[in-house]
Design goal:
Length: about 375
């Protein structure tokens, strides 16, 4: 396929991999990105693709969007503020960028003479809250809102069946699971999904929502203490400090390699079967946080044991990993990169770059204790 693709947030982690792959596949690419200070520190990243056209501006700038959109065929919408914790105190800014920004983008599409044929929207596993669970005693799936503070104080980590009290078994989370956003960030992602679907259906512009699970890989911010857990662990270990593990480290997550996610973004543009669908993008191969820390330690060949805190961080869920059968069926997509290989590439990149590897986690941990977020 060919055509011109607008990638919002195309200077970021997932965006830059998506831009590179689009160019490789012969698309014309225009990027809109405001080089958000927290991510880029006001500098252009070194992975700017010389074959793409860059517009450095804000997603909320409707007039600018109208100009850009006029000759665009497809949109991949990735621009967003992405700090879960931060969204809980910067409520207005997160709502403004993520929700109003998406509204401006959609309005520019419907009010211009453009011929946008599809919009792919980046959503998140965070819209689910807790993952899906099964009770072996009751023989049924159970919806878990959140774990009680009483059970967490007793250090019973797994969610309990609301009917029989037994520990529940985590199972892959599919797209039909009930939604329960537990942060403002997660709520803005759900708002983006719904805004886009409403406008897409009303105007006959196919929309595809991709719910990414934990994305990791090179170009991920290494010194942002609110960023991904892989980057935080690597940064700690390279500073000679142990990774801190919340609870007992048994929480399960689904880590998907960034290039695989970029591929899913492009398949979502190309496959008609996924129009107006919401699709999980993960691996369906859960790994515990403690195992993850050990894998990273082994690849780095450092002799530092992770520090298990046995503390619960307020707002954290216990388990969530993806059922990806819908992505396999509708996108003909499956993840190609095994976790060990992906981590190896991330670490190789972290070691060879001239990145600022300052570890700010101690400060964040102290602050969480002071604010009563850890129990
Ligand atoms: N990384 C993950 O694990 C993950 C998981 C689920 C969903 N997502 C979603 O994927 C998308 C990309 O995330 P990422 O990890 O690449 O984050 P990122 O911070 O690396 O990239 C976001 C980009 O958007 C830009 N941006 C922010 N505000 C903007 C604005 N007002 N105007 C224009 N550009 C703006 C930033 O400068 C940055 O380049 C986001 O929508 C995020 O919610 C990411
Ligand atoms: Zn039960």
């Amino acid at each position: 396929m060919s055509g011109k693709v607008l990638v919002t947030g195309g200077c970021g982690f997932i965006g830059s991999w998506t831009v590179d792959l689009l160019i490789e596949k012969g698309y014309d690419v225009v990027v809109l990105d405001n080089l958000e200070w927290q991510v880029h520190r006001g500098r252009m990243p070194e992975w700017i693709n010389p074959k793409a056209c860059y517009v450095f501006g804000d997603l909320r700038d409707y007039r600018l969007l109208r100009e850009i959109i006029s000759d665009v065929d497809y949109v991949i919408h990735l621009a967003a503020l992405v700090g879960i914790g931060q969204s809980m105190y910067e409520v207005e800014r997160y709502t403004d960028v993520n929700v109003r920004g998406t509204a401006a983008l959609l309005e520019s599409i419907i009010n211009s003479n453009s011929d946008v044929k599809k919009v792919v929207v980046a959503s998140s596993m965070n819209v689910y809250g807790e993952g899906k669970y099964y009770c072996e005693t009751c023989g049924e799936y159970k919806v878990v809102q959140s774990r009680s503070l009483e059970q967490l104080r007793k250090r019973i980590w797994n969610p309990l069946c609301p009917d029989c009290g037994q520990e529940l078994k985590p199972v892959p989370t599919d797209e039909n699971k009930s939604l329960n956003p537990l942060s403002i960030y997660a709520w803005t992602k759900l708002a983006q999904e719904q805004l886009s679907m409403i406008i897409g259906r009303a105007y006959g512009i196919p929309v595809v929502v991709l719910r990414y699970f934990n994305v990791y890989g090179p170009r991920q911010s290494l010194s942002n203490p609110y960023a991904g857990v892989c980057a935080i662990f690597i940064c700690r270990l390279l500073n000679g400090k142990p990774p801190y593990i919340f609870e007992d480290g048994g929480q399960l997550r689904d880590f998907v390699y960034v290039k695989d996610v970029a591929e899913a973004n492009i398949l979502a543009l190309e496959r008609r079967a996924c129009d107006y669908q919401v699709i999980n993008i993960g691996t369906s191969k859960p790994i515990s946080i403690l195992r993850l820390a050990k894998e990273i330690t082994a690849i780095l060949k450092v002799d530092i044991e992770p520090h298990v805190t046995y503390k619960y961080r307020k707002g954290d869920i216990r388990h969530c990993f993806a059922d990806i059968s819908k992505a396999e069926k509708l996108l003909d997509w499956r993840p190609r990169t095994a976790i060990r290989e992906g981590l190896r590439r991330l670490i190789e990149w972290a070691l060879k770059g001239k990145w600022e590897l300052m570890d700010r986690f101690d400060k964040v941990y102290e602050e969480m204790e002071r604010k009563g977020i850890l129990i």
